[in-house]
Amino acid sequence: MASQEDVFKKLIAHCKEYGFVFPSSEIYDGLGAVYDYGQNGVELKNNIKKYWWDSMVLLNENVVGIDAAIFMHPTTWKASGHVDAFNDPLIDNKDSKKRYRADVLIEDLLAKYDDKMSKEVEKAAKRFGASFDEAVFRSTNERVLENQAKRDEIHTRFVKALNDSDLAELKAIIEDYEVVCPISGTRNWTDVRQFNLMFSTEMGSTAEGAMKIYLRPETAQGIFVNFLNVQKTGRMKIPFGIAQIGKAFRNEIVARQFIFRMREFEQMEMQFFVRPGEEMKWFEHWKAFRLKWHKALGLGDQKYRFHDHDKLAHYANAATDIEFEMPFGFKEVEGIHSRTDFDLSSHEKFSGKNIKYFDPEINQSYVPYVIETSIGVDRTFLSIMAASYKEETLEGGDSRVVLTLPPVLAPVKACVMPLVKKDGLPEIAREIINDLKFDFKCAYDEKDSIGKRYRRQDAVGTPFCITVDHQTPEDKSVTIRHRDSMLQERVAIADLHKIIGDAVNMKNLFKKILA
Q: What role does this protein play (predicted)?
């Protein structure tokens, strides 16, 4: 069986070969950690965004959307804490000249101990078969206990160092546990230092009159500075939410793992404003709602888990991540945070404007508390592609690569194919497309054998292939082939719209979320 690393390499190659993701400005050898979405990628991405947007603003009548500018007044970022505190702890290996995030090196070290323990459990499970009790084994096996103790010791030191922003201690952990550079294999490290992740630029026509501004590192602040605008013009009553999809920019030093960590990326964020004291109730509500949103896609419930934060951001009183099992382990795709009243209070202080909400029910003015749900479009895209990529061996020794994308998100919903390029079959195929194209993204393909055409559509995840053959002119029927099962059935042309529509309707997902 191929290793996860090999599968990931194949997935990256597949994304390029089939028009999903290209390296940015590739003819100039690309730009590190920046990617372009191709013709199929942009369709999938837009479908993901629509699924998120509609689940927020259609399913919740107290959630509305905005689209704030990327450029903001620079004091915004002073107020939000990004100018002073938006840093990564970096460390260099003097031999390889490679730069790493110190926290990521330590997280990788912790993951090694987890792997060691899992391997012991796997071996024992094979040995003892059905009578195996994992909990008992983990609490009694010497090797597991030894590794667990070591892991706990590192973890305790790591959490304390993060919370104290103790850079010297982060380096000490790396040295004490003999972490080596993956490239040089040596332990010749520099000190750990902080690096601010914001891109800056200048606005203004003359050098003297220019103002230093930043490319936003998150979309949330555009929501906070518009809190009163939306509340007043929409006559919104608390609790209510503001949703936004938009680009954000971070000068990641260690950008890696394809589109998982990029310098220019897209976020889908919703900030939900609540009464102080009610935030934990809403934190739990949005945790449950967001997990249902992910699971409704049917990629496998076991691929998701919650991971509570070791280090809370300076503004938070609760934070958890929804992690997805990527080919390189469980990784964060979405964060749910209870941000308290930090943001609005800070903007009130820095702007000198009153940003309080008057609550008519309790006859009181207050700065609302905020629950944030923040999800990466690119990471969601990657998780869906990774879960959908399959290499299958078929009967007769044939094989295929198929993307079992949720039909509702698939870039192309149906491909219509005339069996041959004559006898009026292409004309009928075109008629079918002209009828379907108002509701569904369709493709037309008349080149090569029908088998090869099926393979091409499997590779881009098209749920339905429709073949027009010599029987079609006689009885107005076609063959429809289902991607995942490869089953073919004869159906009337008149029924195509309903068959495709039922399979790709987002309503099906929304009903699952609300069930």
A: Catalyzes the attachment of glycine to tRNA(Gly).
Whether the per-residue pLDDT at 1 is higher than 50: the answer is no
Q: Is 263 annotated as a binding residue?
A: yes
Q: Is 260 annotated as a binding residue?
A: yes
Tell me if 268 is assigned to a ligand binding site.
yes
Q: What is the pLDDT of residues 58-67, one digit of tens each?
A: 999 999 999 9
Q: Is 325 annotated as a binding residue?
A: no
Q: Is 383 annotated as a binding residue?
A: no
265 assigned ligand-binding residue:
yes
**Can you give the pLDDT at residue 254?**
66
pTM of the model: 0.84
CB 408 within 8 A of CB 509: yes
Was 456 annotated as part of a binding site? Answer: no
Residue 134 annotated in ligand binding: no
**30-34, 43-47, 349-353: least confidently modelled range:** 30-34
- Any known ligand binding at 142? no
| 192 has binding-site annotation | no
Q: What is the pLDDT of residue 165?
A: 82
Q: Within 13 Å and on the Cβ side, how many CA atoms surround 440? A: 31
Report pLDDT for 397: 82
Residues 340-352 pLDDT 10s? 999 999 999 999 9
472 is in an annotated binding site: no
On whether 266 is known to bind a ligand per the annotation, the reply is yes
Within 10 angstroms of residue 156's Cβ, the number of other Cβ atoms is: 11
- 332 labeled part of a ligand binding site: yes
pLDDT above 90: residue 87: no
Residue 251, marked binder: yes
The domain at 42-86+197-388 falls in which architecture? 2-Layer Sandwich (3.30)
Angle at 392 between CA 390 and CA 393, to 5 degrees: 165
233 is in an annotated binding site: no
The torsion angles phi and psi of 99, rounded to 5 degrees, stand at -110, 140
What is the C-alpha separation between 329 and 439, in angstroms, rounded? 38
Q: Where in the chain is the domain with CATH 3.30.930.10?
A: 42-86+197-388
CATH fold label, 90-193: Herpes Virus-1 (3.30.40)
